[in-house]
Amino acid sequence: xxxKLFQKRISIxxxxxxxxxxxxxxxxGLIPVITMDVHSKEILMLGYxxxxxxxxxIKTGExxxxxxxxxxxxxxxxxxxxIQKIREMRIDDDQDAIWIQVEVEGSASxxxxxxxxxxxxxxxxxxxxxxxxxxxxEKTFDPNEVYxxxxxxxxx
Amino acid sequence: xxxKLFQKRISIxxxxxxxxxxxxxxxxGLIPVITMDVHSKEILMLGYxxxxxxxxxIKTGExxxxxxxxxxxxxxxxxxxxIQKIREMRIDDDQDAIWIQVEVEGSASxxxxxxxxxxxxxxxxxxxxxxxxxxxxEKTFDPNEVYxxxxxxxxx
Lengths: 156, 156
What we know:
Two copies of one chain form a homodimer. By secondary structure, the first copy, chain A, is an alpha+beta fold. The first copy, chain A, has one domain: Phosphoribosyl-AMP cyclohydrolase (Ubiquitin-like (UB roll)). In chain A, 16% of the residues lie in helices and 30% in strands. Chain A contains four helices and eight strands; from the N terminus they run ααββαββββββα. Chain A has helices at residues 2-5, 12-17, 51-60, 143-147; strands at 31-37, 43-49, 64-67, 72-75, 84-91, 98-104, 120-124, 130-134. A four-stranded mixed β-sheet of chain A has the order 2-1-6-5. The longest helix of chain A has 10 residues, at 51-60. Chain A is globular and about 50 Å long. The relative contact order of chain A is 0.16. At the A-B interface, helix 2, strand 1, strand 2, strand 5 and strand 7 of A face helix 2, strand 1, strand 2, strand 5 and strand 7 of B.
């Protein structure tokens, strides 16, 4: 099945100018995925897929990622209910990055509780020093209620 | 200087809920960057920055990446003229991904000649087979004219 879905990478012309899906997975077998809210056009998260989760995403129409911290395929929203239905999937010129536009039930996507994982912007003070400024004032949900005792996926 | 710009990662609370810029660079010293056109909200590219190019991007307000194929800091647009002026920069929950919104002079960003690097979508036929469908009909510029004999950055 996998051989039929993903073609072998043969030439730059095939990869850049062709119509065959021939993705490049990195040394860890992963490809980065930009996840955008199809309505607001806000970036919700940057995730990673391996071959199996990429295949599952295409076949089910729901975003499946590979969790690098937990080392498992991760059906996004299975715990939180915040399933991401894929409305459009694009791949870039050299086919080593994916951009999906998704519909999210419940309008939140981040394990910290915010709508987007990108809830802070990098701001510069008059003196040139840098800090982060929150762009979302309130959390959309309480992560403790949703995830309970699950370990935090953030790695220092 | 670098120590002042990027803080040490001390705790999950600091990284996720704090206002300090404490990015996580991967084993290659890189952090992925989602680049969006600030007006159309289209994703133009997924690039990577190392510490130095991240710092240059903040200080100059113009996107600098690290080219993984050429292994150099890459001031986007220096050859093509398609400079990306950063209008907003965000960082994600665990600070291992960046999202920038940019203004591009000339409205093209992709070395293949298209407006966006994501010029093909993944489409499914009635029989379930997968192909790529072009979303841009014409190239914005002729890469041969702009880049001449520069080696193609795509790696198979």
